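Quick question: what would this complex look like in 3D?
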Amino acid sequence: MTLVMVVDDDQDLAEMLGIVLTGAGIDVDLVSRGDEVMDVFRNNPPDLVLLDVMLPGLDGIEVCKLIRAESMVPIVMLSAKGDTQDVVKGLEAGADDYMVKPFRHPSELIARIRTRLRRTNADVSGLLTIGDLAIDVQAHQVTRGGKQIALTRLEFDLLVALAKEPGRVFTRDALLSEVWGYRHSTDTRLVNVHVQRLRSKIEHDAEHPEIVVTVRGVGYKAGVMGGS
Amino acid sequence: MNRIYSRFRNSLAIKVILSTVVLSLVVMGTAGSLLNSQLSRGIKEVNLNTALVEARSTIFTAEYRFLLAQGERDSVVQKVVDDVISSATTLTANENAREVVFIRSPGNTMDNNYEIASNLLDPNSIPTSLSERVRKKPDLVYQYTNMNYLTGTRVKGLAIGQKVQIPNAGQYEMYIIFSLANQGKTLDLISRSFFLTGFLLLFLVALITWLVVRQVVKPVREAAAIATEFTAGEFGKRLKVDSQDEIATLGIAFNDMAESIEKQIARLENLSRVQQRFVSDVSHELRTPLTTLRMASEVIHSSKDGFDPIVARSAELLVAQLDRFERLLEDLLEVSRFDAEVAVLEAVDFDIVQLVQRCADDLSLVAKERKTQIYIKSSAPVVMIKADIRRVERILRNLMANAIDHAEEMQIDVRIEASEHDVAVGVRDYGVGLDENALIRVFDRFWRADPSRARTRGGTGLGLSIALEDARLHNGELEAWGRPGRGAHFVVTLPRSTWERIDQRLIPLQPEDYKA
């Protein structure tokens, strides 16, 4: 059984989330205070964290940073604010995805959780290379010259999505559906922030990316580095 | 000329200075010429009297000496005459020159002729009118004349004459001519001084006026500048008050007014901030329970198949109304962002033709329900623009949804036109249309064209007003045209890159198919 940790101070909403997730066959751990999260997290590591931004004790952004410091577990932020700054702040703190309350459809929440939990790219096997990076899809590892680079699952998925078809230009919408499992979305902030985060980990110089290249006005593609 | 006139009209200082100078000129001119004529008359009178006294004594002395020379020889008499002349005469034709002319009276037929004129003076300098009067009168007679020298020099003079009796030689006329060169010079000097003093005074008056006017005008100008800045929105601006005159009173009054306005504005700003804050907070606070509600309703709805039909229908209504409630909440939140002026653009590059197509596709089901169809015509297959895609999509969606609502089962034409700088999308329907009154209010919040008309799509009543704000946020424009029964036309024009301005309307607002 998969375990999802739901962190929300609104008892009713948390309970409702519990009902919906349990109904979808997912175990739920409810936490209502931000400063209690880490204890529960260490005692019973979840497969995914559903994290509200406004929390008593410690706010969601801080909690997100704390979790990211010790785990690559998928984090989906729940926010009552659709405002850009909050969303971007959450993503920069390490969240993989976010959902703005109220959700369009509860089924959408479950779909997103499943996308984040799914072992993506199961069809891709063996080793991929992109630039001077070696990607072992099965082992979920990225190495440069034998040295491992730690990526979150989402960052890994994003990189694999680009690397498995080198040279193909992916629109942001295509990436949203491929990596995040969105059907229709124009929220390109999600892609932009994650590409930035991925670049900061894998590029030699994030200001002049060579592995994840921007195609102006269209999207991104895996760059073919000269000499490799 | 026009510029000078407008400067005169626009500058209080120049107006005051010019008026003062002109008035002073009139006053000084009158006073000066009066004084000048008074003075010159006085001087002439004094000179005349002196001359008369001198002439009388000279002529008296001459007569006396002639009397003494009675019976002497001719040569002696001649010597006496020469003597008299030379003692009455100055040596040269200088400015104080005094000349003597000695002429035989007509009718004197004596042999001896003692006629003489001193210093080469032309005896014709004596006007005939004077000579005639001398002959008639026994006393001194005078007249102003010109002294003509044989050398060619010419000086103004005063001629005084009298009959003189020389024993044994008959009657002569003795004229003494006083040069008035000096007097002329004095008079010239006086009038020149008057002119000079006048001009100097005028200049000083202008200078003083300027200084005085500046004292008044400068604070007025400063006040005007401060008032302008105040109007421009710098409500903290105040006048400097450092005296206790009327200008200071003006300054204090202005500052009091500014103070009161600033307070009022701050109060209103605070009120509206509190209000906007409240709306925003309410919207946010409503979201959490709404999320719970939606999930609960969804859970109920998903198992409605097992319900009794009334409960099942209620579940459907619950879900539908929650949808509507949520849209309303979203729109309210967006409106509160516009009101608080915190709405921001997140510009990305995208193809607007593709976006229009996608919006039309998304709405095609609704359109089908309403028995209408959306046709898209674009002047170019791809039109890349840099704009906030979320907002542009919302504008397009709102316009198309609005058109579907009012299409009356007739088609909807969407047209895209692009120039190098701008892009325009026109949404034309041929349905109910809008009257003049409706056109004015169509972008108002919660406004309905016809209150009795059912809002079938469950719109929030904020769609068009938000679309307009979205367009304006891009420096674009959203305009509406409509005629009752002839449909409506909404045109949104946007700059193709952010922060530019639109410089033309690519699609005429009045549709080309419309003939009045």
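Answer marked as accepted. Chain B touches chain A at residues 284-285, 287-296, 298-299, 326, 333, 344, 346, 348-350, 362, 384, 389-390, 393 (CB under 8 Å).
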